[in-house]
Design brief:
Layout lengths: L2 E5 L4 H8 L5 E4 L9 H5 L8 H11 L6 E5 L3 H14 L5 E4 L9 H21 L7
Parallel strand pairs: 1-2, 3-4
Antiparallel strand pairs: 1-3
Helix pairs in contact: 1-4
Length: 135
């Protein structure tokens, strides 16, 4: 069954509204579960914890408040439709990822660190590219 894990997404109602017609389940993961691996979280159901509690836990872990969505068992066609719908509705999520055999065993903190590393790598690459003269 296709689902997405949502971490620190302030726009969950909009996300759920976009996912419902696609029959993709959205699971909001509370910050006090960020020590679990993505594979463990994929199998769980959570109730949302209060935002004050969330901020307290995140501050203790040294985490940023960036949003993350991890897609689980989503086909390529579903993913393309999901991303297109998010773009159309202007739904912003800082990091988007797919659950893989490699990252399945990572705790949420490691996923955030990897996503931040990749973003910095791309930013560095594009900043080093000079526009061609004459264009």
């Amino acid at each position: 069954m296709a689902k997405v894990l949502l971490f620190q997404c302030g726009n969950e109602a909009e996300i759920r509204q976009a996912l419902t017609p696609m029959r993709i389940t959205a699971i909001s993961v509370p910050a006090d579960c960020f020590h679990l691996t993505l594979g463990e979280l994929e199998k769980e159901r959570f109730s949302a914890s209060g935002s004050a509690e969330r901020e307290k836990v995140l501050a203790g872990q040294g985490m940023t408040a960036e949003s993350l969505m991890v897609m689980c068992d989503v086909t390529e066609k579903q993913m393309n439709r999901l991303l297109m719908e998010f773009r159309r509705r202007e739904i912003r999520i800082d990091y988007k990822a797919v659950l893989t055999p490699t990252n399945r065993d990572w705790p949420v903190r490691r996923m955030y660190l990897e996503m931040a590393r990749e973003r910095a790598m791309y930013a560095s690459y594009y900043a080093s590219q000079k526009p061609s003269e004459g264009r």
